[in-house]
Specification:
mainly alpha; single chain; binds zinc ion
């Protein structure tokens, strides 16, 4: 058998093992009774181990070194070899005993965290979190990197490093904090009508209809209920989304659905020929998040989008929305708040929450911030950026699961990268589609979706993020399109003059 054919067949087996594990995960997070947890954890771990063994196998290394010697990166097969080699090198760097230790410790720490969070007791998890930091540092030692966090960033957002992100984020934060201050000095919009009776069945039907209008293909997907919404891909023919419903607030289900739809549009529109290979997936966490945020915020929270949709929403929920004008509604769904919780925060303050976490995890890995000092460091930074101190650690450094179940580092920057990229992609799309606003206002989403498919989706993981952004937007990633977008949108909404 020729080496490329053998490689592809091996990659398909790995992809199938991973997909089988993901079906089990999807079930675990949707329909599985709680009693299934122990066995399910074991089953998923077994499939993941089998996939890992094949990914790190000696034969895989031989095939890749033979193929990469002659691969032309400008071809699809060359891109495939490049991506597979990267996966192989990552899979073989860290000894499996350490991986197992990290995974076991993650389960113990997660269980302790759920208790500590509800008890608002940081001391309960402190020693376990200290061990997690030590394990994270040991993991990073296996990579030749300038900063320990680079070992983790590279996994999620290839091409980025602590150094490049610190520069990018510092320039973003310097401009963002004054924007937030100016907006928060203005009266808050009325949101009272959002807290009303919004029946669950109607919410689900409305959200699914919106998802379908945006282009989500229900013949190659489905939507189910879960606790923490996610998108999951088993193959190009089966890309699923999940949601949850708060009967007193329709925005959670609707904007959550649009967010997951954005992730799914990416996965459903990848070239189907890439199925079963490492190219058949989004290229990075940041680029993936750029698509969920683009559809959720730049489209879903825009005035044109609601010109089209608001009459339908009023028809669906006549009681709470009767007499609420489109302008008042638009202001309410774009309220900027001094919130303490990342996942509930608006698009203006959101990145401040992310950059706080990124800077603190860098400091922890550098040995500059001791775990014992984490709660105070967190609270001080919240006060500096948002002018509000968390009253409890539950609303502070215990709020996110990330540091309490996986190694510390690399899990947050993708959210802000995604926000920055979303504005940059959208600005490029607006250039290419001069009538984009008019199209959104008429409920015509195909032109935008097709532009994104051509520029981003269909390529899957063929290009690394920096290459993809350069190709699609003609420029390197920059915070400027995002900051321009915020000023242009929120200036008029809040009656703030941001200057020219
Ligand atoms: Zn997302």
């Amino acid at each position: 058998m020729n080496a490329l054919v053998e490689l592809k067949s091996e990659l398909r087996a790995i992809s199938d093992l991973n997909a089988a594990a993901m079906v089990l995960e999807w079930d675990q997070n949707t329909y599985m009774p709680a009693g299934g947890a122990t066995a399910r954890g074991r089953q998923i771990a077994l499939l993941s181990r089998l996939a890992h063994e094949r990914r790190a196998a000696k034969r895989m290394g031989e095939l890749l070194s033979e193929l990469s010697a002659t691969a032309d990166e400008a071809t699809v097969d060359g891109a495939l070899v490049r991506r597979a080699l990267r996966d192989y090198q990552r899979a073989t760097k860290v000894p499996s005993e350490l991986m197992e230790k990290i995974s076991n410790h993650g389960s113990t720490l997660y269980a302790a965290w759920t208790e500590a969070r509800s008890a608002n007791d940081f001391a309960m998890v402190r020693p376990l979190l200290e061990q997690n930091l030590e394990l994270s540092k040991r993991y990073a030692e296996y990579f030749e990197v300038d900063h320990p966090i680079d070992a983790f960033i590279d996994e999620h957002d290839p091409g980025m490093t602590a150094a490049s992100l610190k520069t990018l984020f510092a320039s973003l934060r310097a401009e963002l904090v004054p924007i937030v201050e100016k907006l928060l000095a203005k009266p808050a919009p009325d949101r009272s009508f959002l807290d009303a009776d919004y029946p669950q069945e109607k919410q689900l039907a409305f959200a699914a209809a919106v998802s379908e209008t945006l282009g989500y293909d229900f013949d190659r997907g489905r939507q189910d209920l879960t606790h923490h919404p996610f998108m999951i891909r088993f193959s190009s023919g089966d890309v699923r989304i999940t949601t949850r419903v708060d009967p007193r607030d329709f925005t959670d289900c609707l904007f959550g659905t649009i967010h997951e739809t954005g992730h799914a549009l990416y996965e459903q529109n990848i070239d189907r020929a890439f199925d079963g290979t490492p190219l058949g997936a989004g290229t990075s966490t940041g680029v993936h998040e750029s698509q969920s945020r683009l559809w959720e915020n730049l489209v879903g929270r825009s005035r044109p989008f609601w010109e089209h949709l608001y009459p339908k929403l009023q028809d669906t929920f006549p009681d709470p929305l009767k007499g609420v004008s489109l302008d008042d509604f638009h202001r309410a769904i774009n309220a900027v708040e001094r919130g303490l919780v990342r996942v509930d925060s608006d698009e203006v303050t959101y990145n401040l929450h992310v950059m706080l976490r990124f800077d603190l995890e860098c400091a922890m890995l550098e040995g500059e911030l001791a775990i014992a000092d984490l709660p105070e460091a967190w609270n001080a930074r919240m006060e500096a950026d948002l002018g509000k101190r968390p009253p409890t650690n539950t609303l502070g450094c215990l709020q996110d699961v990330h540091w309490y179940c996986i190694p510390i580092g690399g899990a947050f920057q993708g959210y802000t990268l995604g926000n920055l990229m979303s504005a940059q992609f959208f600005a490029a799309a607006t250039q290419a589609l001069p009538d984009l606003e008019g199209q959104l206002a008429r409920g015509e989403f195909a032109p935008l979706r097709e532009w994104l498919t051509e520029q981003v989706y269909r390529h899957g993981a063929t290009y690394f993020p920096d290459e993809l952004i350069q190709r699609a937007t003609g420029a390197k990633l920059s915070p400027k399109p995002f900051l321009d977008y915020l000023r242009k949108k929120y200036g008029p909404l809040y009656g703030v003059d941001f200057g020219a």
